[in-house]
Design goal:
By secondary structure, the protein is mainly beta. The chain has a single domain, classed as Porin (Beta Barrel), CATH 2.40.160. It is built from 1 helix and 10 strands. Strands 1-4-5-6-7-8-9-10 form an 8-stranded antiparallel β-barrel. The longest helix is centred in the N-terminal third of the chain and has 24 residues.
Length: about 220
């Protein structure tokens, strides 16, 4: 029998298998907690962009990088919902990217042009936040603050040793629109404070999120 291609990354396959188990466990926990139909209020699928910028130094020299756009996708769960506040949890994938500007020099050492090189870091992200909200005529503006933890699932090109775990705070400002009794359209602008560096020489300058969602309200009991 032929051998597996050299490009198979068994560490990534193992990580993805662990992610599947984690999602199953989380789903079971929420199912048990929601057995009486009172705990979970809504589920929202979201997708959007993550805008990041990092400080990168090599041997004390600053590497020229520019802000880059990655993805942010997953689902959000609202629970313990009250009239003016609720708790929310997010489970998804978030990408932090580094775009390096590489100069081209002529024979005299003068910069004549630039090219770019991109490094992507893909994180499984979990967070829980408190949300203050106000419902008026199907529109529900809200602000949120909470904590988050990220686990590095995969990355491209980068050869230095990287940290697997990151954690920090998250802040959000958004709007829900109730299209029907149980259908929710949403938009949220977020700002995340990251505590850990990506590697010894790369420090993230936090990142901004823009996320659009489509969800369903599960618990229609009046507050």
């Amino acid at each position: 029998m032929g051998s597996l291609p050299e490009t198979v990354d068994f560490r990534l396959l193992n990580t993805l298998e662990q992610m599947k188990k984690l999602i199953i466990v989380i789903s079971i926990i929420f199912s048990v907690l929601d057995a009486n139909g009172q705990f979970i209020d809504n589920v929202n699928l979201y997708s959007g962009i993550s805008i990041s910028k990092v400080d990168w130094t090599i041997f004390g020299n600053n590497i020229d990088t520019s802000p880059s756009v990655g993805y942010s996708t997953g689902f959000k769960i609202g629970f313990l919902n009250e009239k003016c506040y609720s708790l929310n949890s997010k489970i998804g994938m978030n990408q932090i990217s580094i775009v390096q500007k590489v100069p081209f020099l002529d024979i005299n050492g003068n910069i004549v042009d630039y090219s770019t090189d991109r490094y992507d870091f893909n994180y499984l992200t979990l967070n829980i936040s408190a949300r203050i909200k106000l419902l008026r005529n199907n529109f529900e503006p809200f602000v949120s603050v909470g904590s988050r933890i990220d686990y590095l699932v995969s990355y491209t090109k980068f050869r230095d040793k990287v940290r697997k775990i990151d954690y920090g705070m998250g802040f959000g400002l958004g709007l829900n629109y109730f299209l029907k009794t149980n259908v929710i359209l949403s938009v949220e602008f977020g700002y995340e404070i990251r505590v850990n560096e990506i590697s010894e020489n790369i420090i993230p300058n936090n990142n901004f999120l823009v996320e659009f969602g489509f969800g369903f309200k599960i618990n229609n009991n009046d507050q």
